[in-house]
Amino acid sequence: MDTQRARLAESLLSFSQLTIQATSERQLLPELMTRLAPFGVTHVSAGVTTDRNRVFKIGNRNHFGHLNMAWASTYFGGRLFRDDPILGHSLRAERANYWDRAIDMSRLAKPGQRVLSMAASCGIKDGFIVPAPLFNGDVMIVAFQGERLDRDPDVEALIRGLGMYYGMEGQRLITAANLRAGSLSALTARQIQTLHLAALGKRQAEIAAEMGISINTVEYHLKMARSRLGAKNTAEAAALLYATPPNLFRSYGDP
Fold it and tell me: Which of 33, 111, 138, 162, CA to CA, is 20 to 30 A from 18?
């Protein structure tokens, strides 16, 4: 193994070990940026960007990272996501890739060209997207951005690996912190069970039959789980559940 490949492998390995020891996403972020800065990465954003139907989630409260705030303000303030070709790609993406490899820039319509031009004016001219499908069908997107990212194949492997580790572990740590702070109330055993079965794609009638309860009781457990987790829907509640270590949920028994 040559010197650079060995160095990159060590960088990924040491970051993976750090995720085991870290107690907050804030501990991971500076280590992530230190590893990626030599390769042109200046900003990173991560979060559950699409639901199980690949529909964009606007302003998901679990977005995190080192965001370019000037661009974020322009992007959401101007609702540029409606014409963003990168977002359009990420909604369909099955594998990590650089922007210019995933999209034919020469064939972009004027609205898409305008979005990329405005991003460039904020210092974002290049990027790399890492999609990470979650248990319930939602997709987390980790996006690395900068003026010009390194195209070396070994560097690309490092960026992909760091994106997966940071995205999944960052979400887990943020959810765990919310639980410890009491911002997410504990779930009962029945609520966890109904959420699990719903995440497997079972309908309420099937859940009721499997658990030996009425459909109304299933609806009640799911409603309470969504409320306690602060989730907009059952799919988001399931995503929060499976992003969190089981021992962080206290189970009180049935209400």
Answer: 138
